## 1
Amino acid sequence: MTQKVALNAPVLRKNDEFAAENRAWFAARRWTVINLMSGPGAGKTTLLEKTLPRLATRRCAVIEGDMQTDLDASRIRAVGIAAHQINVNSCHLDARMVGEAARTLIAVDPDLLFIENIGNLVCPAAYDLGEAWRVTVFSAAEGSDKPRKYPKMFLQSDAVVINKIDLAPYCDVSLEELLESVRAVSPRAAVFPLSSRTGEGLEAWVEWVAAREVR
Amino acid sequence: MTQKVALNAPVLRKNDEFAAENRAWFAARRWTVINLMSGPGAGKTTLLEKTLPRLATRRCAVIEGDMQTDLDASRIRAVGIAAHQINVNSCHLDARMVGEAARTLIAVDPDLLFIENIGNLVCPAAYDLGEAWRVTVFSAAEGSDKPRKYPKMFLQSDAVVINKIDLAPYCDVSLEELLESVRAVSPRAAVFPLSSRTGEGLEAWVEWVAAREVR
């Protein structure tokens, strides 16, 4: 779609300026920022619910992005973590929204800030939010073809979480297939097969998160 | 995102013109067109693989939309149905792409044409393709909050398929919750809970599809 790309170029350029401002602002405060992206229902919020209580050495906060509802922010607050909900009629968060949301968390002063992006495997990949780390989550129930079909997001990720591995046997997909499919598209990413529901594999993921620093 | 909406307004207007042309073109040929939308991995292609062989009274064809790969078109052809693959660096199909793809199917002259949109619960909802019927698919593994969180696509749908209901027991979600969540957002849609994998519930869906006409 040449037409749309051309029209969006100034939007993306403006976004990159806001992202650079965010990055400097985060660095000055030593906030390490992780941008969590996935299609709808891959399990980002449940992953955060299980991860946050295990990050005792870090002071955490979350920015939640959704088109509608503040269900996700409520779920994060229920595990005792500060959360700011962004509701926006858009298919992705942008750097300006995140910059504004971050200001509401100054009193919390997190040293680890998660941004849970809007559920979409396509558009969020194009929008730098000023984060230090990018993580893509996908679920075993989505099938092993997803990394190849939506390569941009996987290519740019520092880590890929393969969630819901407890469902793999009921989805006719093996863990090996899932791992190979990720490695083919994200050779440099740390890969974490896990189940937020059963807790399997969570430990390695939590360790990786706990070790993130501003960069 | 006022800025993006403003920039996209001409794109959407132009798309509506192409969609109106498509609709007239389809109607003149008596092609009944169904636009199938979902997030990534909800199971649109598998649903088509199971549905197409059961539509013996109709002459079918499929337009497949993906960012990358022609995996889906190959799967459709493997069940003996003509399929045209669109690969596009975009988060949705638009009416112009569909109009061009439809021309490649003139020799097939389908009386039932499925368009499998790009896996995304947000952007495809804004793009009229000239279809007669809109169907949203989501998977029990995505959780019952999806209709409320992505209401636009569900609101506009003539039918909603709740796929992978065989996974519900492993996802701590009941069929009642899933049905209620759809009915709350899509009161006018026909709702089909089913499992493409086990075949449960397929019959009612196939009957609905088989009865679709140009309108």
## 2
Amino acid sequence: MAERQDIHPSVQDSLQRVTELLHKHELAEGHAHGEQGPRQELVETLMHKLHFVELRKLLDALHSADIAYVLEMLPLEQRLMVWNLVAAEREGEILLEVSDAVRETLIAHMDERELVAAAEQLDTDEIADLAPDLPHGVIQGVFKALSPGEREQLRAAMSYPEDTAGALMDFDMISIRDDVTVEVVLRYLRRLDEMPDHTDQLFVVDRTGRLEGLLPVNRLLVTDPGTPVTAVMQPEPVKFHPEEKAQDAANAFERYDLVSAPVVDGEGKLVGRVTVNAVMDYIREETESDVLSAGGLREGEDLFASVWKSVHNRWAWLAVNLVTAFIASRVIGLFEESIARLVALAALMPIVAGISGNSGNQTITMIVRALALGQITAANARKLFAKEIGVSVLNGLIWGGVVGLFAFLIYRNWQLGLVMMGAMVLSLMLAAVMGVAVPLVMQRFGRDPALGSSVMITAITDSGGFFIFLGLATVFLV
Amino acid sequence: MAERQDIHPSVQDSLQRVTELLHKHELAEGHAHGEQGPRQELVETLMHKLHFVELRKLLDALHSADIAYVLEMLPLEQRLMVWNLVAAEREGEILLEVSDAVRETLIAHMDERELVAAAEQLDTDEIADLAPDLPHGVIQGVFKALSPGEREQLRAAMSYPEDTAGALMDFDMISIRDDVTVEVVLRYLRRLDEMPDHTDQLFVVDRTGRLEGLLPVNRLLVTDPGTPVTAVMQPEPVKFHPEEKAQDAANAFERYDLVSAPVVDGEGKLVGRVTVNAVMDYIREETESDVLSAGGLREGEDLFASVWKSVHNRWAWLAVNLVTAFIASRVIGLFEESIARLVALAALMPIVAGISGNSGNQTITMIVRALALGQITAANARKLFAKEIGVSVLNGLIWGGVVGLFAFLIYRNWQLGLVMMGAMVLSLMLAAVMGVAVPLVMQRFGRDPALGSSVMITAITDSGGFFIFLGLATVFLV
């Protein structure tokens, strides 16, 4: 697939040329609509066509992934103009490469016939990746065009949930029988025009299709042709089941530096393979969605999405935030009398809430990461609690001392300083306990601790910090 | 290197067995220190030894990456116990696999001789990866043990800054001359016992060492042996320079689904290669450090670091946060008189600051991501500003309406509700403008916009939100 041309250093250049050509085209169009003689109009039209021809040539020379990159960066109108110039037989591949948000905009401007044609150029596992974004009619159309074997593959590929090894799987593997020699394998391979991408090894199966071992392609080259396959293959390879978590597969790829790995069903029969490029894409998407959700976005946003779409995408987290802010506001409301008597409390309270929020987020970041790596067990959880509480007490004394001094210097009230310090220690301890507990509890209830942990800890440290500080102040100062 | 044993599904089991054995060992030790007859003591000592023997056997069967995983999860004392049982010839590999924080704890407990021995088992590019953590004397010792060619490689590998393609590079490539036939290549390969990991292609060079093209190993298998290498090689491959940004190399690997790629110097001479496993490790480390710094941690923390070490690691961000909190506090201080007259302001002000902080973080997350992907140009930056301001005004009216209503319902004061709403619109606009501007300015001044953008926007929206809300209230209400 991937024609390795020397395009990598020049993607930026290509993008610049695309935008230049689009710009010229726009200028030409602007002129064409102005007042002018028929002859000038003709010249403009020719110019206009010339830019299109040049643009099309430029696009044809680009790798599909690079065209995807260019499409991501163009505002909607220009994006569709470029999309119309892309050769029809490359549309499927490019749709696979663009982000979900941009894919939506492209698909919305294609009719069913075009979409079926684009999907048909892809492998079944790739069609399955695209399927959630395709209208039902298109999928039906694609099904009709497939062979019975491919239909079976597509049905299987579409049946695996997004976060399973099955969703990462492709069917482009070469499998060989275990009762042949290396020579037979070499002869078989020579009959193929080309091996599938990422074929670093062949899969050795018995007559029923059960996976017996792996035969690295590199070993084929250094082995005597008369050797039986079973003598050079690696038995007991790392293998996955389609229902297995994609994250576990990704971890195995990283840990054991794999390029490809077999997928077997419950009976040990080879059903597909996972390659490192599918794993890289998965890792990228996962970390991206973690970053987005940590930033309060529901999903990746087309840079040039309409204002309305953006508002929609950001709605949910703002609403959650509003609720937690209302709660914090009512906590403060409880102590309005105290604040009215000692207005310094209003100015100081955000410090306590802010620092404990920050500290709680530090703890939670560490715990969420350790959970993702599977590093937390029942045995070490208690040690972690103890450590985090130790850290929070030490931090509370240090930073509480600083803020207490700050309060004293500004308001010349040493009792206020002491209350500040006490509140810092207590609310940092709260942040530490909840910073460990929140992700553990979420995990226990089967939820992803990376999603929403930060919002929850901030809500707790805000309301909790206000309550502790204003409560202590009410008891000791007012 | 990577022996592909069927260890992947059983890492969790192994960990459990390791901890069980350690636990038994501890129990045995506990007994041994109790009061008992000499015979019982002997039994305990034997038990104790047995556990060690069993543990060592278990460790020998594990992949280095899995031992690293186990070490990460053990508290310091047990970790060192296991470390002492690891076969000496695997120590180098394991040191490479563990996290920086855990590596430090292991290195701290090895003497110079052990460290030199461990490093000597590694390839030069791997030694270079380890070098920053090794005492100077160890590096000297390793240098002495290397051949002149390897010394040159190590010196080169150590000279590339962390974020360059050169730092990802290894020297395990097979290069062939461009004036031979496929048959010669096959004969040459057969003389090798084994090809290096991730050898999906050979590098074709001319007599001066300049890279001419790539010869995929898979193509060797399907090509007639009489064919000249130049007829089957891929000319003009994707290649990198050692000084190039590692991120660009990683992007190219993802985009073009590469397994390996050549690195050439300024004259086009082949100096090394980058493989997909180095890229995956790089991506993992990058996203990890982004996540950590977003959570306010300076670097990865050993789960069982001492309280003191943790406090140290988290110190910097808490200090920054404290300064911004102090500033926000002084902004509120400016309006203490207004608050004393209308104490509801104290309860309502965190809502304005909180929501605009959240909204600003949404904007900044999107912009930082787009910058990392190279999607923002001078041409589209203005469009982005316009879009984000549009979103903020719409959000301001929607959420401002909600919080205004909230304020009215609680305090029965419609002017207060209107001020709330106005303050929301203005501070969301501030968040939008700064959410776009802060990362762009950081980028312009050559700083990584992913680091600290979030802290900065929160500081701005806190102080700004308080100022806008309390300012409007002072003008219109008090």
## 3
Amino acid sequence: MKSVVFLSGGIDSTVTLAIALQTSEVHAISFDYGQRHIREIESAIRVAESGRITSHQILPVPLFRFGASTLLKTSPQEPRTEAASGLADTYVPARNTVMIALAAAYADSIGASTIWVGANADDYEGYPDCRPQYFEAFNLTLERGTVSKPTIQTPLVNLKKAEIVGLGDEYGVDFSNTWSCYNPKGDFHCGQCDSCRLRKSAFRDAGVTDPTLYAT
Amino acid sequence: MKSVVFLSGGIDSTVTLAIALQTSEVHAISFDYGQRHIREIESAIRVAESGRITSHQILPVPLFRFGASTLLKTSPQEPRTEAASGLADTYVPARNTVMIALAAAYADSIGASTIWVGANADDYEGYPDCRPQYFEAFNLTLERGTVSKPTIQTPLVNLKKAEIVGLGDEYGVDFSNTWSCYNPKGDFHCGQCDSCRLRKSAFRDAGVTDPTLYAT
């Protein structure tokens, strides 16, 4: 059974990859959408090289032309370092919709039956395109609009980051290959942005050794 | 009210544009997805320049990396010239899904409430991503997964090509700017491919003068 796995190089997609590898032949896909932290693509390549995947491709996506999100390198602002409520300033309009659409095109081309996406419970509030009812609707869209009718699987969608780290640890994931930081300092995570803070506390709460190099 | 209009340079999208212009500020979007008939993008530019649209952009989409469709220039085969039943050999996997996703990203960025797509009744059989129930499911996806919750409008979805030509004629559409041919001979339509045959018969059945230059 073939599957397509979103691989961003972060913890969530890396753990999702480990799960997908249990049952399927994995074709990984990463996206260069003009993100500020291009460093994550390097991590995606490292993760892919360390896994037993069948293929890995990196697709350019012209989202940067639209973006107001601080995650995009075209934004004059850096992402906020404090947690905020409501819509995240790192929201990239319809990002998951675009990525899932491209993954569906790929899946429909190679006859893959599953698209694995590492969305999780921490993303609910800030990102409408990370919620279970969104993925349900998209599955219906793909059932009606493609030939191979791939289904989106989100095994982490009800898990918090600490639970995901714990699960990845059970699967033997090497977290040193993964990347989370929005404001990298070379090969170091900044240790202060939203994403770094979430990463730090996830390892601590999971009781798993954190192999990350933090600048602070 | 802002809207995003798919503009391929063909008859359907050009008539849809004329309808959208009645009620909204139009931001047109065209896609360079590696199609064999790149000539259609030139036509999209001509149509855009002749209309009262607010902006027009052409987005590169990396669909050609996946494609088995004869519509893609990476295919060794030319499109068939005879009508076929079942899935069209010109089917590009999940093409509309990818294009609508990108249009949604754009709409969500500029706060547009509508995405206009020129799908029509002739496309039902060969293209699963041109059917009303597909667009319904995608609307639900966008309602759940975006901030501006744009809705897809398909005013031609129940019309045959001849009816669309008739409707465009009522709106004063200049059909000489539009393009249909899969196998262009310079600035001439080949006159023989599926798409040219459909175009010819549509003008004839609609009783509208056909301004197209055909090679045969």
